[in-house]
Amino acid sequence: MLQLENNDNSHFIQMNDQRSTTDKLAHNCSHIIQMKESSKIIKRISILEIICDTFSIRGVARMRRGPPFLRGLWFCFVLIMTVGLLLTTYLLVQDYLVYDVSVNIHVDLDAKSPFPALTICHHHPFSQNAYHLWRHGDVMSPSVFNKHMRNLTHKFLMENDVDAAETLYQYDSLSIYYQNIKTIDAYRLGHDTTAFLNCMRRVNQTMQIEDNCMHMDGFQIRKFSHHIYFNCHTFEPKTKIEAYDTDTIALIVSLGTDPNYNNQEQAFLVDLFEMARGLR
């Protein structure tokens, strides 16, 4: 009997030892699980802190400091501003892709504007001096130029070179004649400032009248050469103040002598329907 009791006691002791071991393992496992969960929480908190500390956006750093009410207020502020930024960027890109054109129109009534530059050219480019130069042979006349063109055209026709002859026929023009004389001769053939017989300039309530336009106050005359009109003249204000002070300018311009198509000017068949008298 004693032997049996000892066996039962030993079996009971072994059972207690096994239960204590199981409890220890369960306790250790739960402790390990709690440590893992706490480490995850620590990682989450550290990432949030890094975001709040490193972002340069105003208000992000305040979302983890202070009372809960202020943190919530800053969170709403940052959220609203972020949504507004994204929405504004979207609308801006959408507006750019539409390619709209904005035109601002401003109407200023009775605004005083500066007097512009005035350029005058003669439709008939040759002055009286041109006929004198042609008669004395100082400058090749249009008739002589036309004779050269006709002789060359006849030469090419005799050689059965129709294309060259047709091209030379098109060369019988005022522009080609201009290109075949010297620059100084082109200035000598054209009109000069003596073609302006009288100039009048009104400034406020004052009228200035000059027989020689070169002496007109506030304006200067520039001459330039043109391949069709030869000499053109530009009246332009000397200063911006003179341009604003000038109200009107009146010019009396001579059209020159009548063209002499019987002698020196018997040429320019291509320009026949463009010849005119007057000013441009």
Q: How is this structure best summarized?
A:
With 280 residues, the chain is α+β, with helices and mostly antiparallel strands. The protein has eight helices and six strands; from the N terminus they run ααβαααααββββαβ.
Structure description:
Belongs to the amiloride-sensitive sodium channel (TC 1.A.6) family. Its main location: membrane. With 280 residues, the chain is an alpha+beta fold. The protein folds into 2 domains: 47-97, no CATH class; 118-275, no CATH class. 49% of the residues lie in helices and 15% in strands. The chain has helices spanning 2-54, 68-98, 128-135, 142-158, 162-170, 174-179, 183-189, 240-245; strands spanning 118-121, 196-203, 206-210, 219-226, 230-237, 246-253. β2 and β3 form a beta hairpin. The chain is elongated.
Distinctive features:
280 residues, alpha+beta, three-stranded antiparallel beta sheet
The best one-word shape is elongated
% residues in beta strands: 5-15%
Structural class: alpha+beta
Order of helices and strands: HHEHHHHHEEEEHE
Radius of gyration: 51 Å
* Largest sheet features: 3 strands, antiparallel
Fold topology:
Blueprint: H1 2-54, H2 68-98, E1 118-121, H3 128-135, H4 142-158, H5 162-170, H6 174-179, H7 183-189, E2 196-203, E3 206-210, E4 219-226, E5 230-237, H8 240-245, E6 246-253
Antiparallel strand pairs: 1-5, 2-3, 2-6, 4-5
Helix pairs in contact: 4-5
